[in-house]
Amino acid sequence: MASIEFWGGLGVIGGSKIVIREGGHRVMLDIGMDIPSGADLFRLPVRQRPGRELADRLKVGAAPAVPGLYDAAFLDEGDPLGEATEPTAVFVSHPHIDHVGLAGYVRSDIPVHAHTDAVDVLEALTASGAGLPGGDPEWHRLSSGQRVAVGPMEVECVLVDHDVPGACGYLVRTSTGTLAFTGDIRFHGRHPGLSWAFADRAKGCDVLVTEGTTLGWNMPAAVRGESDVERDFNAALAETPGLVLLSLYPRDLERVRDFLALAGVAGRTVVWPDATADFLRGLGVPDVVKAGDPQAAGLGERPGSFVVVPDPGDLPSLLDLPVGTGQPDSVFVHANGEPLGPFEPRWAPFTDWLEALGIPLRQIGCSGHAVQDDLHAMVERVAPRVLFPIHTTAPTRLHPPSGTTRVIAEYGVTYGMDGQAQ
Q: Are residues 145 and 269 in the same domain?
């Protein structure tokens, strides 16, 4: 009989970790860095102790104590968590830290799978100096539709739409039923057909585990999409006589390419931080310019010909740019980049610096997560026997259709495929 456990993503946005067991084998869906519901003990200015990152997290409950998952080299000497248990395989839904952040600590005998596009992103991050804590595992690349046997279970990778390449959901087939996991998913992005196709593949499954990020938000009446983001960026380029400052998420490669094209049409050159430029070049993005490149010459004299992406960790570097008193009007365009929002400790210093320099902030992003109406429509379409909402602060706001039992999972509890705690 197959069983299900949840080791993260409960009552919080992020940190997903789902374990399915059958026949002495174990499948783990996502292995994200835990996102605390309260204050993060490891937030800046705290610096993690080299070589003690995982062991310290385990001691304060900021990583799940899953037996037989971690490489003993990252644990305290003699820690029983480092002893091998049942054969295990890990499947990562996409390359965001809250879904993949602990993958570098996994035992070398445990295969770690991800879609090939996601692996490209993760390897480019490593090459640019921003790789996973603990280093990259030996990635097992998947294509959409590919199936992998794990003992008596079979795991199928299915692409979905999110704001990063290689995002996918999974179907886990067991002898007692099929579990579908959305990963992070949306239906208002560039490729909604992918997400609806996943819903169709999952239709009639026994268990649906879905992210529900937006359930805890007060949603605007109109849903913003990528066309709205591009329109607003275009307007900022046209309306700003001086320098346009920009924050966007570099892993959202489609938006990066779109913004580069829009800036080029407007006669502006985008200038990136060195590490970000290295990451984008590693993924084959053309026309990526660093501050020291010849294409960035003239920034001080012609700020209206440039877009600058500042390093979010180096706010004083704004003082080196042609902004503030005596300069043409500038604007800071925030398109889902870092710092991510007011919930982050870095947000207040960020907005303080903009206020001090007289730079207006314009927020133009759109969510990478399904809005509430689409989540309900997806669940209606899939019509699972059992529904587990995770990756949300408000799981009870996802209302199941007739015939579906909603279960609010508890940490570390074992559930059957019928949703009953065992």
A: no
Q: Are residues 90 and 177 in the same domain?
A: yes
What is the DSSP code string of 332-397?
EEEEB-SS--TTSTTHHHHHHHHHHHT--EEE----SS--HHHHHHHHHHH--SEEEEESBS-GGG
Question: Is 279 a member of any domain?
Answer: yes
Evaluated on CA atoms 330, 335, 338, 342, the torsion sign reads positive
Encoded tokens for 354: 């903009």
Task: Give the contacts of 216 (CB within 8 A, at least 6 positions apart).
Answer: 13, 392, 393, 394, 397
Number of domains in the chain: 2
Type of residue found at 159: L
H, E, C per residue of 267-330: CCEEEECHHHHHHHHHCCCCCCEECCCHHHCCCCCCHHHEEECCCCCCHHHHHHCCCCCCCCCC
Give pLDDT tens digits for 190-213.
999 999 999 999 999 999 999 999
- The DSSP letter of residue 169 is E
Q: Encoding tokens for residue 69? A: 């998952």
Say what the alpha-carbon torsion angle 373, 166, 313, 343 is, to the nearest 10 degrees: 20
Query: What are the CA-CA distances from residue 354 to residues 66, 67, 241, 269, 347 (Å)?
Result: 44, 47, 17, 22, 11
Please give the residue range of the domain that contains residue 155: 3-218+368-416
- Which among 383, 315, 305, 377 is positioned nearest to 346, based on CA atoms? 315
User: Can you give the CATH number for the domain in which 357 is found?
Assistant: 3.40.50.10710
Shared domain for 64 and 212, answered yes or no, is yes
Q: Can you give the pTM of this predicted structure?
A: 0.95
Instruction: Return the SS3 of 10.
Output: strand
Structural domain contains residue 421 = no
Q: Is residue 23 domain-resident?
A: yes
Residues 235 and 311 in one domain: yes
Per-residue pLDDT reduced to its tens digit, 134-162? 999 999 999 999 999 999 999 999 999 99
For residues 319 and 216, give the distance between their C-alpha atoms in angstroms, rounded to a whole number: 38
| 422 in a structural domain | no
> Does 248 lie in the same domain as 155?
no
Q: Given a cut of 90, is residue 43 above it in pLDDT?
A: no
